Amino acid sequence: MANPGYGKRSAPDQHRRTNHDFGHLPPREAAIAAYLDRLPQGADISVKTLAKQLPYGQCALRTALNRLQAAGHLRRGREQLGTEGGGSRWITRSWWSRTARDDAWWAAFTRGDVPEDRSSPERPGPTRSRAHMLLAALGRTAPVLSLSAADCAALAPLLTEWFARGATDEAVLRALSEGLPTPVHHPAALVHRRLIDKLPPEPVPLPAPRRILECAECGVPGRPEALPGGVCGGCRGERAPTPSRTPLTAPTVHARAGAIRDAMSLRRRERAPG
């Protein structure tokens, strides 16, 4: 794993994993892409670390990563994150996408405005099933709260809202099982009341992160539009356009020279003793 703030970061709204995700790539790049895709969040995907794990040298890996970047699977850059004290800091990022993205998508991602791909995104299953399973297992934590299948089905939508607000399974179990009255006459009614009364507040929305992409070759930061395929114009061999200069006409040259002479004569007269 990389140090905190470094390593692999998965891009959102990726397609589900299949056996043909990287069939459009050459064999070496496809093998490396499949390896990177299965690494966890925060894994170190630097060239030096990959060279210790894969049967390729650093030069070959550097070339392969650049090709993966050109194919739209990888981008490198920095992201500004807020701190607890109200400040912010920039953190190096390496964003990975199993689904190949074009430059326009990466530009939108950099702005924090990613268009959703609803064809077959990889997303967790509905929280309803998770809520149902937790309620069904509630009796293991507190036997007096054992619920029927019908009770679980009726209460699951209320618990779904807890998960939507970021509640963990442990937090839900504590809220439902601690400080129970004795005896509990109606478990379903008590759980229903607690799910309503102890519902956590809605989370405060975080501001969209600021992101900057960097050239895969030289690391220079730039606008996404200036880094097609993740490479700057200089590293692609492009020359900066030279400004066009229209030659001055002869009357213009004479007029400017006369103005300069007049200004110099005026300054000499001003400096001459009275």
Which properties best describe this structure?
alpha+beta, 274 residues, 2 domains, 41% helix, five-stranded mixed β-sheet, 10 helices
Characterise the protein shown here.
The chain is of the alpha+beta class. It folds into 2 domains: 1-113 and 212-274, no CATH class; 127-197, no CATH class. 41% of the residues lie in helices and 10% in strands. It has 10 helices and 5 strands. It has helices at 27-37, 47-53, 58-70, 103-110, 127-136, 138-141, 149-164, 169-177, 187-197, 250-271; strands at 8-10, 74-82, 88-96, 210-214, 221-222. It has a 5-stranded mixed beta sheet. Strand 2 (74-82) and strand 3 (88-96) form a beta hairpin. The N and C termini lie far apart (82 Å).
**Beta-strand share of residues:** 5-15%
Helix/strand order, N-terminal first: EHHHEEHHHHHHEEH
Number of helices: 10
User: Radius of gyration over alpha carbons?
Assistant: 31 Å
Order of strands, main sheet, comes to 1-3-2-4-5
Helix percent reads: 40-55%
